[in-house]
Amino acid sequence: MLLKFCSTAPLRQLKRAHFDVKSIVKNLPQHLASIKARQLATEDELVAQLHNLPAQQEDLRQLSTEKVEIQTLRKATERKIKQDASRDHELRDQLKSLKTEFQSTSEKHRQLQEVVYETCLSLPNLVEDSVPAEEPELVQWVNPLSMYRAEPARDHVQILVRKGLVDFKAGADITGSSWYYLLGDAALLEQALIAYATARARKQGFSMCIPPSIARCEIIDACGFRPRDMNNEQQIYHIADSQLGLTATAEIPLAGLAANRVLDLSSGPRKVCGVSRSYRAEAGARGKDTRGLYRVHEFTKVELFCWCTPEESTRILEELREFQTTIVSELGLPAKVLNMPANDLGAPAYKKYDVEAWMPGRGSFGEITSTSNCLDFQSRRMHTKFKTSPQEKPRYAHTLNGTAMAIPRVILAIVENFYNPGTDKIAIPLVLHPYMDNKTEI
């Protein structure tokens, strides 16, 4: 089903985000707890700003009252000028003084509003009560093994290079480190994974979308992707002399699809599946994780994105997790599902699940999917609202995102789990056979 809109005005430059400052002040302890639990590098600064917010909100209220009172006096003085010509000079001096006072008060109000806005803009989302503090919580095993043992002979880099299925050297020569060429059946495997994931998504009611891989910086920012992460590593490739950046995930342009819109959710949540190339600038900054296909600068990703009512987002998150678990299970990959701790949540996430697959060549588990509930964090910045009936007042939608398929890491997991050293062949998961020209191995 195509995305339906109640309002179809063309996408314009985003307005300033709208924050419910009263709600933030009312829930100050929860916001403070979120900042501390996330262990942010800017924790001290954010905590100080947040502690000032109640007083600043009261000051704004008083300044607004003063502005109204001054305007009332100005109008009264203007009436007196018309009624009493003998006091014209005196009253006009008063009017001039009131105008100056109003301008001064208005400027104080504007400056304080800006301080409050910047504080709200810098706040991360709240954290759901079930989110663990510092360590991931195991939710379930998928295709569990009796033993998880490192097997260097299953290293995907050695296998793929030896079989002529990937060329890291050419990628480095043409572009730089952490770029690569997928060749032959490895390229076909990528296409098979895309076809399988999108077919699965369509069966679950997701409509298909091929989004742009470049977005305006304000859209990237509104999604919660900052130029640098907690380790001060660059995340986003910005295009020089423009206000554009390469998207790190289809989540960004998919969220932008409903920017400045009022969605019609009368038929239920809106669910979109996007296929795009994704670009990550930080790929070369994490030691052993940079080897091979695990952390690269450019890759194909199948992304799921949902808009729903606030009452539905908890259920939708669990549905996304189940969808991801089913895909991993059908691929036959040994994996575990984790409820991720607060110190691993990005700023927009209220709660997040990761699925980590066992990668014997690397000798460790590695993340292959993630899904998050962002509540109204993104919709307030994107100005995405919804109605479920024509009479209903528009409210901010909740947004959720999830990975259906991060192609390079899934290829890595397939190679390292299904490679047979005796035959030098890689078994292809059964569900992919129809998309691999019915090949059973590579």
Show the helix and strand layout:
Layout: H1 21-26, H2 28-38, H3 43-83, H4 88-122, E1 137-142, H5 156-162, E2 166-167, H6 168-174, E3 181-182, H7 184-203, E4 207-209, E5 214-216, H8 217-222, E6 244-246, H9 251-256, E7 261-264, E8 270-279, E9 298-308, H10 313-331, E10 335-339, E11 351-359, E12 364-373, H11 377-382, E13 384-387, E14 395-396, E15 398-406, H12 407-418, E16 419-420, E17 425-426
Parallel strand pairs: 4-8, 7-13
Antiparallel strand pairs: 1-10, 2-3, 5-6, 8-9, 9-15, 10-11, 11-12, 12-15, 13-14, 16-17
Helix pairs in contact: 2-3, 3-4
Give the tags.
Helix Hairpins, 8-stranded mixed sheet, disordered N terminus, single chain, about 450 residues, 17 strands, BirA Bifunctional Protein, domain 2, 12 helices
Give your account of this protein's structure:
The chain is α+β, with helices and mostly antiparallel strands. The protein has two domains: 21-122, Helix Hairpins (Orthogonal Bundle); 137-435, 2-Layer Sandwich (BirA Bifunctional Protein, domain 2). Helix content is 40%, strand content 20%. It is built from twelve helices and 17 strands. It has helices at residues 21-26, 28-38, 43-83, 88-122, 156-162, 168-174, 184-203, 217-222, 251-256, 313-331, 377-382, 407-418; strands at residues 137-142, 166-167, 181-182, 207-209, 214-216, 244-246, 261-264, 270-279, 298-308, 335-339, 351-359, 364-373, 384-387, 395-396, 398-406, 419-420, 425-426. Strands 1-10-11-12-15-9-8-4 form an eight-stranded mixed sheet. A hairpin with a 7-residue loop joins strand 13 and strand 14 (395-396). It is elongated and about 110 Å long. Pfam families: tRNA-synt_2b.
